[in-house]
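Feature request, filed as a ticket because there's no other form

It would be nice if the structure record came with a short human-readable summary line next to the tokens. Right now we just get the raw output. Example of a typical job, pasted below so the devs can see what we mean:
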Amino acid sequence: MHDHAPAGGVRGAANRRLLAVSLGITSTVFVVQVVGAILSGSLALLADAVHMLTDAAALVIALIASIVAARPANDRRTFGYQRAEVFGALLNGVILIALSLWVAFEAVMRLIDPEEPEVEGGLMLGVAVVGLVANAVAMWLLSAAQRTSINVRGAYLEVLGDLLGSVAVIVAAVVILTTGWLPADAIASLLIAAMIVPRAIGLLREVASVLSEATPKGMQVREIREHILGTPGVAGVHDVHVWQLTRGAPVFSAHVVVDADCYASGRADAILTELQSCLASHFDVEHSTFQLEPSGHVEHDAHA
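Raw output as currently delivered:
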């Protein structure tokens, strides 16, 4: 006995629109940054442009994953395709780490090279400001959706990293304009790499948690058990499992022992409805599966 699977159609459509708008912004700024990096000779600006290109690729991946995740369930994919969002986030995390390693390598090579190229600080500053504004707008668009979708969160973290990168480029440009100290450009590039890695690792940890079917962060299984045991007619609960298909889509299953007279009185259906309502209202679990068992029932199951 169970309720219906989570229906994220409306949320998914809204997420796709936000991802599409963010993709348009990111792609436009990428072109501006590449031209600006070539004209100014700034490695930091070029690194930020490559990061912006990665952002665009990540948004494309996220958009495709969101479309795939919206496909309905079938006999082969009984939970539907929501896990596609998780795989999209996994790919985003790998791209982030690869990018940070490339940026760090290029920055170190420029620092140890005695013949540093000239950097046009004024143009570097102007392009970085454009990137900062564009990233701020994209982050604002994705800020709400990233709380409920691991896929959108991956794209959001990419944009956040690029916004911080734009700040680093702006600071480096100001230093070059005021002091003429060119190594500031390479140092800004290293800072961009340093800001990317922790966010990428955090995203990959969340992906690993979902794929390993760990209990969603913030969900207390003990509290769920207490709520179930507090339902009139419930004598016990065992084989409790909580996992998530993707961020914001927790799934719950449990075996619930009910008093034998609940079957005789026909109250078993009411208990099932009450349990599902409890999970939905108190713990935001839209998909819950309960196996009701009469007292004295012997469960031949390996799980404790």
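Something like this underneath would help us a lot:
The longest strand covers residues 234-244.
Strands lie at 234-244, 250-258, 287-294.
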